[in-house]
Amino acid sequence: MGEEIERKFLVKSNSWRKNIEKSAKIRQGFFLSIKDRAVRIRVKGKQGFITMKSESHGFTRKEFEYEIPVVDAEEILETLCTKPIVEKTRNWVTYADKVWVIDDFHGANNGLIMAEIELDSEMEDVARPDWAGNEVSDNPRYYNVYLARHPFTTWDLNPKTELGRVHLEHSGGISDDDAS
Questions:
Q1: For 86-90, 96-100, 119-123, 164-168, which range has the lowest pLDDT when averaged over its residues?
Q2: Which of 167, 179, 178 lies closest to 11 in space, CA to CA?
Q3: Which uninterrupted H or E stretch holds 164?
C-alpha cells in the first residue's frame, strides 16, 4: 500500500535557486476530485502518470502512482481533466541531507512557489531552510487539486501577508520593506 507523508511550505525568497540539482516541467490535471479522493493525470518530461490519492489525515495520505503512455496522459489532460491544467517547474534541492522539491507554478497559478518535503514519519523533525516560510500543509487552498479549480492568479491577496510578499516579489511588485 502506498503512503505519502509530506509537509508543504510557502517559499519566501529565491535563495534556493542557487542550489537546484535538477528540474522538470510538469503539467497535471484532475480526472476526478471529490471530498475524500482524487485521480490525477501528470505529464513529466516524456513520461505520463496516473495517481490516486486519498484525503490527508495529518500529514499522511494514501497514494498510488502508475506510469501510463505519455500520449494517453496528454490526451486525458486535454479532453477529460478539469481546466485549467496545473503547470509548474519542479526543482530538487538538498538541505540538511533531505531532498526538498520546490514547485514554481506557471500559467493560471503563476507567482506561487511552494516547497515540499517527504518524511519517513509524521513525528520526524524537519530542518527548515531560511527560504521556507509559512507552513501550509493543512491548508487545502494549497493542494494542487484546489489550484486546478481556483487558480492562484484569481486569489485576492493582501500585500501585507507573507504570501502577498512572495507573490509580488516574484512578479517584481514589492519588497519586504514595502510590505512591513
A1: 164-168
A2: 167
A3: helix 162-170
- From the list 15, 13, 18, 20, the residue with the least C-alpha distance to 166 is 13
- According to DSSP, the residues that pair with 113 across neighbouring strands are 104
User: Is pLDDT of 25 > 90?
Assistant: yes
pTM as predicted: 0.84
**For residue 96, what are the domain limits?**
3-179
Residues 6 or more apart whose CB falls under 8 angstroms from that of 52 comprise 37, 38, 39, 40, 62, 63, 64, 65
Give the number of domains in the chain. 1
* Residue pLDDT, tens place only, 120-165: 898 999 999 999 999 999 898 999 999 999 999 999 875 445 454 4
The CB density around residue 2, as the number of other CB atoms within 10 Å, is 12
What CATH number should be reported for the domain holding residue 95?
Answer: 2.40.320.10
CB atoms within 10 A of CB 120: 8
Helix/strand/coil percentages in the chain, nearest 5: 25, 45, 35
111/122 Cα distance (integer angstroms)? 29
- Contact 43/28 with Cβ under 8 angstroms? yes
